[in-house]
Amino acid sequence: MRPQNITQPGVGPRGWLMAALAGLSTFDPTLVLTVGPFVACVVFLFGRPGRLRITPSVLLAIALLAWIWLSVSWSVNPAAGQSTIMWAALLIIFIATVDYIQTLQQLRLVATGYLVGAFFAVAQTIFENQAAEGARVGVEGLNVNYLAYALASGFALIVLLWMTGPRTKRARVALLVVLVSLAVGVELAGTRGALLGVGLVAVWLVLCWAARRPPLKALVVALLVVCVLMISGVSDKASLVFEGGDRATGDWSGRLVLWPLARQIWAQHPLAGIGMGGFHVESGTGIGAHNALLEVGVSLGLVGLLLFVALFWTTLSNGVGAVDARLRAVLLGAFLLASAPAYLSGTWESAPASWVVLAVFSRLAVLAPAPDPLSVGSVRVSHGRMVTQPR
């Protein structure tokens, strides 16, 4: 069942600002972190600031930010204040995007803005690297893995727009063109996690097409098991069975060095961690743990990790009960599979693009059919039956 086509208010300048911010997040995260919070505040203040819905997601985002701020007092990282400001920017953008998306039209606009930015990033990649041969390429000045993960996340948004957008030939052709361009961009970047994410989304769509009910619960359980295995380290050596191709290094490009270090440091400070960005300093590597769960665990301890996981869980589950079950399962599965490799093998938790995409999928509730009862006095018509309306 598709969401009903109901009259939607115009998106206005606020919508175009949010769409531009979403597109920019795919290829210029530094600029987004600099101007994004101010844009988000403008969009929020010129909306309905007095009617901000204090949802569990908003509360958890505020709680997570407060814990990050507190962690500065015990952080081993001299630049912990900068890390805190970065996270404040990310969560402000997230909350403002969630607050802005109140209609299906607004949801589509932000998703479309993201894909336009991703398409531009691929075009820029091709233009800047016409003479490159046999190398991983991306946008100049941008980490190639960031770009690849941003493009992979775009596949989930393509699924979203394909299933909820207009079924006109023009819309379908546009989405197919973007899909091909994103696939080219991921291939040029050569990031294995992004390639895996795209492949998993394709497999998921085939499964959903073949099965009467998309196996979303089984997928969630499988991902939880993978997370536990990666946190514990049980699967480290066994995972090398899947490391093939010409980029095989025997340690997942250094990740099997970083992950044990992260577990060791976390074990010494299990509850509160060592402060934001502490792994960069304490490990002596100058880089992140390349696993969102371990990075957050080391930085913020078990308390911070529980807040982080709870934020994700409530964000994706809150208010979606009225959405068609099959549609909801297909979309959430596509998001989880496109994003999981980035979160579990990269530094995606601190990427502006990741929080924009999460905000979009947090508002799937707008896909629910709008109730349109015919009310007369204390009686309304619902599904062909007369039902007494409480006064």
From TrEMBL:
InterPro entries listed in its UniProt record: O-antigen_ligase-rel_domated (IPR007016), WaaL-like (IPR051533)
Places the protein is found: Membrane
Domain O-antigen ligase-related: 178-309
Keywords linked to the UniProt accession: Membrane, Transmembrane, Transmembrane helix
Membrane topology (UniProt): Multi-pass membrane protein
Highest taxon listed in the record's lineage: Bacteria
GO CC annotation terms, alphabetical: membrane
Protein name: O-antigen ligase-related domain-containing protein
Organism listed in the record: Cryobacterium cryoconiti
